[in-house]
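Take a sample.
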Amino acid sequence: MPMSAATLALPQLRQRLNLVLVLGASLVLSVVLITLRVFFTHQFTFVFLLWNLFLALIPFGLSTMLSLSAGRLQARVLLPVGLVWLLFFPNAPYILTDLFHLEPRIGVPYWYDLALILSCAWNGLMLAYASLTDMQALVARRLGWLASWGFVTVSLLLSSFGVYLGRYLRFNSWDIITNPLTLFFDIITRLLHPFAHPATWGVTLLYGVFLLLGYVTVRLLGRMQEAEE
């Protein structure tokens, strides 16, 4: 006897709730570390990481909304929401580059700042992978397994390019609306003259490969856990 749609949805909802609880606990840790640093030092050195974490939550929120939406609604909003997701997706792995801000500072143990930034970087990476897992499942359902991994690869490479634009050229997701001409010019310049901008492609390829290998590792660990159960 076939199971009802509601019955089939229960395990998915339970897994989603568990994921949200774990990610939420990890985010709370980062917020607490930042708050304590401000409280004891009266300095706002790493408060900007709160904003970065909020931006990293946006693609996860969008992919969650798509994953839990009903079939017809999902089909109608998949493309526009997917494009917005892709626009904001680089904000999640971008937090890894905030390790650039790590340096010895008077009044704060070096190990504390290291733990603080690493916790934020970890959250950004896990939010990115959780969100990408959602989107890959949606693509696989419509276009197949091979297309879904092509989507993953392209998304991570584009994300790495976005990280470069944000870290080195200081663009953000809103510049596509507020400063589109400058953004478009800088992108086209690097596409037409790749050898004149080796750092662009070095960051894009190396960061992209790193993110892809990490994502594959996480997915394989999940498959191993499923096999044991």
Notes: The two ends are 24 Å apart (CA to CA).
